[in-house]
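Second opinion, please. Pick holes in both lines of this record:
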Amino acid sequence: MPAKANDGKQLETVVDGVRYLRIPIKTKLVLEGDDITEVVTTFASALLRDRDVLFVTEKIVAITQGRSYPTESIIPRKLATWLSGHVARTPSGIGLGLPQTMEMALRECGTPRIVLAAAVAAVTKPFGRRGDFYRVAGPKARGIDGPTSGTIPPFNAHVVLAPERPHEVARALRAALGGNVEVLITDINDLGGNVLGSTVDRARTRTLERVLRDNPLGQGHQSTPMGIIRREQ
């Protein structure tokens, strides 16, 4: 069956004069208790070719690690409620602009670091700087996904944390796939994103981030939490 792009997305992109395909892979609904290696090998193995790069969204990795929490199960402290009111929300998601997501940031990153991030942002924001909160708070804070209406239930009402040990997960998946492909664990949305775990060197990882910059999988009900990057030339 020929590769097909998700609605509103492009199958092909060109980076540094090289043409790449970004092929979405449809899966079942991935739940806590699923084995990420089994999910990946079941749905991706037959589609992969030598020298392909498999990219897996951080969300399904985190879900299989038990790092997804129903919003109603999270009781935010007063500090979380106050801080969340000062965080800008973006079109790609609620980020830490919800008391429950901010509460999880405080737990994941530690209260001193989050308070420091908020203080730095309060000083630099009036000068037109954006993103200092997340730069100081770090990748664990950036990786927290809040509830969104466009997400497949039940995760439209969950807070999902960044996955643990993403580089180890990437290496384990590569080994399970036979070692003839590379693997990325990605955190990509419509505003951009980055690679959290990778089996390739830093320079190539940066190139592949550019290949995925336009979020070819989307982030709604597509049920395609992984995909293939295939160099065409």
